[in-house]
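Here's my example:
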Amino acid sequence: MKYFGNFQKKLRTLGAALAVAVATSLVPEAAQADAGFRNWIQSFENTAAQNGVRRDVYRAAFSGVTTPDQDVLEKARYQPEFQSKVWDYIDNRVNEMQVRTGQAYRSRLSSWLDRIESRYGVDRDILLAIWSMETNYGEILKRDDVMKSLPRSLATLAYLDKRRAKFAREQLIAALKIVQDGHVSPSNLQSSWAGAMGHTQFIPTSYRAYASDIDGDGRANIWASVPDALATAANLLRKNGWQTGKTWGYEVRVPAQYRGGRLERDNRTISQWASLGFTRADGRPLPNVGDRANLVRLAGDSGPAFLMMKNFFVLKSYNNADKYALAVGMLGDQIGGYSGLVQDWPRGYTPLSMDERFELQKRLAALGLYDGKIDGKIGSGSKGAITAIQNRAGMPADGNPSKAVLNYLRQN
């Protein structure tokens, strides 16, 4: 009987173990991942504390954060600065709507811009262009589909993205210190998917290095104070070598003998470039002949060419992409009243105005092919809808927002 009793006990133990194993196998992968994520948050509290973050601050910041943000990982896979064609990138950011809005703010904020220029020596139009590029003059900050919980976003990257894990951990600790220092409350600690904050999208370590309280209220409030945000951007550029009173670059004509990539990225003085036959695209003389510049052609021989000055490369300290720095420079020029490019991009199609882009998206939406935001910006959703129409019309299915596509929609 004793043997039989032991046998029954072993059966019960084995059955319990099997039940646990079966139950575990039935738990969805997502739930297991969420449990691992919560464990990571709990364990990282000690790391944050060792780096000077109070535990009450940490717990307040992570209150209610229990699951990773999968949208963060999706956005991390696609960065338009490095994947879009240069003209797609520029067209979405340098257009008549962004210029008009920038000029309106140029007038509205003139007294603040005077103070910022006086203190930091950075051109106001460049600062307005950065504001436009980063958050569409603050409009992005109002969008729940874009702005995210910074602690959740950075914890997601630290936990699930091996390439960005170290970056995310560093930025998360810096962000918690910003909260601890009283610059922003945990509930207002919002950011982009990568942890960029406020009107001019500063990552936490950059905020701590360059934050400026130009409105004098005791806080460098880049989340709610546009003057503080613009001054913080100006401080970053100044400390990275911005040359006051100098431009970012000149569009130029390239002599025939230097086509085919020759002299690409070469660094010479303006006078040396002129001696080789390089001239400004608009026919005016090249100024600042002693300054050095690099030849940059982002679309090869068939697109516009530029002699890029020191300030172009300073702009890349904000975002290390040629397309970004070029878009800021071009938009800043147009906000300031200068004309656009002399030589257009080699698109291979007739582009649309911004008003026509709105019309295109509305027509695609009416056909049930597009369900994104009607904003005139042609992203992957718009391109997919355009491709569907092109296939229907027997056009080359390239997804480009061309005059031909819009005319087809108008007629059909």
Q: What stands out?
A: DSSP finds 19 helices and seven strands in the chain. Residues 1-27 have pLDDT under 50 and may be disordered. Residues 354-411 form one domain.
